[in-house]
Amino acid sequence: MKALVFDRSPAKYAVSKALGAFGTRYRAGASSLRLNDAYHLSSPGPDYLALEVKLSGICGSDLGLLTAKSSRYFEDLTSFPFVPGHEIVAVTRQMPGREGEEVRVVVESVLGCRARGIDDLCAQCASGRPELCTSTVAGKLEPGVQIGYCSSTGGGWSESLYAHSSQLHPVPDGLSDAEALMAEPFACAIHSVLGASLTGGENVLVLGAGTVGLLTVAALSAFAQPASVTALARYSHQATLAASFGAQVVRSHDEARRAARAISRTMQLGSRVTGGFDIVFDCVGSADSIEASLELANPGATVVLAGMPSPQRIDLSALWHKRLKLAGTYAYGQESHQGQTLSTFALALNTMAPLELGRLVSVVYPLEDFEEAVNHALAAGRRSAVKIAFDPRAKTSRSSQKGS
Amino acid sequence: MSPRPGFVLNVDKSYPGTLFWHGEGFRLEKLPEGSRVLYPPEAMPALRDPVSAIDQALDNPVGESEPLSALLRPGMKLTIAFDDVSLPLPPMEAPDARSLVIERVLERAARAGVEDVVLIAALALHRRMTESELRHALGDRVFDAFNPRGLLLQHDAEDPDGLTYLGKTAHGEDVEISRRAAESDLIVYVNINLVSMDGGHKSVATGLSSYKSLRHHHNVETMVHSRSFMDMHHSELHSSNWRMGRVIAESGIKIFQIETTLNTNTFPKAFSFLQKREWEWSLKDRAAFLSASKSLEVSPPWLARNIFSSIRSPYGLTGVNAGEVEAVHAGTLKNVYKQQLVQVEGQSDILTMGLPFVGPYNVNSIMNPILVYCLGLGYFFNMYKGQPLVREGGVLIMSHPTRPEFDPVFHPSYIDFWENVLTQTRDPKEIEARFERDFAEDPWYIHLYRTGHAYHGVHPFYMWYWGAHALEHLGAVIILGGDAKAARRLGFMAASTMNDALEMASQYVGVNPSITHLHSPPLVMAEVL
Predict the structure, then answer these.
(1) Is B214 exposed, middle or buried (0-12, 13-18, 19+ CB in 10 A)?
(2) Which end of chain A is flanked by fewer CB atoms within 10 Å, N or C?
(3) Chains A and B: how many Cβ contacts under 8 Å?
(4) Contact B444 A261 (CB under 8 A)
(5) For B294-321, what is each residue's pLDDT tens digit?
């Protein structure tokens, strides 16, 4: 089968890091990612279903990996070579109870105990938090925190992969493939919003209006009752989308301090605002964005790190001085919502239709054009795009089409 | 030789072009043949001996008032309030009319043995004046005598201990003014009248009042019913101020009003071409125009601003009226209209105007887009008696660069208004209902107003309300040479040439519109018959 495969290569890692540092375009030749037309993958076991990929997105964490900007923290939790791609819409003919029928599914990519074929669940998985699984290097699979970082399962940037039956969620008929592709990032956003335990009435800032930021705004509108949602957007299409998802105030990054001061009705001394937002979702994950989030938070507020951070040098004075809480949020799991306990994915799939999230899928590329696709994703904001995805079935090289 | 009266010129082939203000620069525009251009009367002759004229006015007051000297006695509490930096525009050459008047008042107070004298700049919700502005307005002698002893105050409309509530008008309007003024045995108000909107009861009822009081007439409803606010007999703004003025009088507060009027001798020699009609420009004038406009074109905005901010106008005093407020103001209006009013037959489809570098609220500062809006749709549009110069549904073309630049020290709340309010709505009523209270009561804006040099948080709202009548009346507004993004934020269009502007206007008024140009400088006001 055809697949984009990422292998460990210290030399290429160094070149990618250097190119990234100079802001140069992503170069396929200098990257550890390559197209393999005859990639072979064996089934990890009888509970694992073969999936044919329809669409797979390019996420910020993928871009961090390809440009060598992401942390080496995950290196030992990853098995090489692997096929990236954890935002996946696929079809399977092996769905238990519906064998032979083509069933459209989205994949809950996190590899917890169940997905690893471990019957004796770790404490985290047993309490409904598979994203925090402590057995992530055990079971029937090689190490990897998610599909897309594990050599045993394959990933979305290929024609097919394997996933445990517990990881699959049938796509409701009303959702297009493009909409279904957004189920995984939307589940992340829901998990992040519900994890922040908003009690209602807070002034919330969403810093960044790429995929993570926009979906966080959408999740806030759908699952919380804050007093206000302010979004910081760099580009006009992002501003328009943020407003359409329910941000009452949309500002550029330059206007952030004034927005923080005005909403908290506090003061500004030079460039320092004495108050700010009650909850800040940093949906970028850069040193600048984290420092800005800390600066724009009210004393005692919570800053949620929703964007995947890379190694940073950060001034934490505001965290210390304002007694802020810095909280991480990762992936999805189970949620208690309106008296029910259900998986974040189910919650996402049940609620996403009216949001028309398919409009966020800007361009779809065939696997062969991965260099162009990655560069498009790296410049998404500048090029008026949001989500770039692969369609492994697409044959035409050097062309693109809108997701269906 | 007596000054020539104002007149309406019909543009023909021989017309050399019309000078338009364009912020810190000029444009020479050819208006289509048949367009009308309103020229103001030439500058009235200045009083030969202003000090004697002031003495004469103080000793021979108009209306039911005794001469000033008769109102002064030992042991009394005297407050002298004076117009702030928003008048005149540009600031006048020293000595400022206020300093001349205040010196004469103080001399009489000293002669009468009055010891408790306090000076108050009647800021209302304007920014506090800087030391150099106060020195210029009052003169060094007065400043140095009062300021070090804490006897020169700037009205603080947010000082809870510094205000006195006097009651309500018959219309339910709250009247609250400066406690020091209210508790004085006599308020002497020293005014400079540049346009007919100023003076009268508005001096104390607005200049020394609070937000609680001001909001009764600084609102959308009042402004759309002030047609125009330059014509007090058809201005709800003035009716409300007059009602408040009468409440002030009924509460026993005694006011001795002194109003001065200026001629339109606005520019020093280097810019004397601005005082003349274009076809009368000498070679020297043309050279001065060319050299000024070319050098301003290549100057960065801050430099051009500095050049214009340094201008001191050689205004001449044309009259001094003193005594009872309403009688004084009637005399003032007569003088102002004599200097500025031109009769014109009927309205036109398009009104054109050039907007200068300065308005009442950006002295020594930046004319931000909200102030551009206010100057065009508020002040210049309202320079009429009778009916607007442009018909209902007509188009206003105003020339100004309209850069989206703001002064963060003087206009902090304007920046938030620009970013947070105008991005959501431009409808004055909605703006008033949804946003005014938050801005007016924002503690940070209040802090900056009271301790720095910031306009009050609510001030940009008033600017927007000032243009509400024009917004309701006009079919479209085009900013000639304006920043396109800023114009869009204001709800207007931008055109780079007059031809483009006229073509854009044709969508609203057809292809053969009638056009009237309000020529400025100097200031002109139309009586539209």
Answers:
(1) buried
(2) C
(3) 23
(4) yes
(5) 999 899 999 999 999 999 999 999 999 9
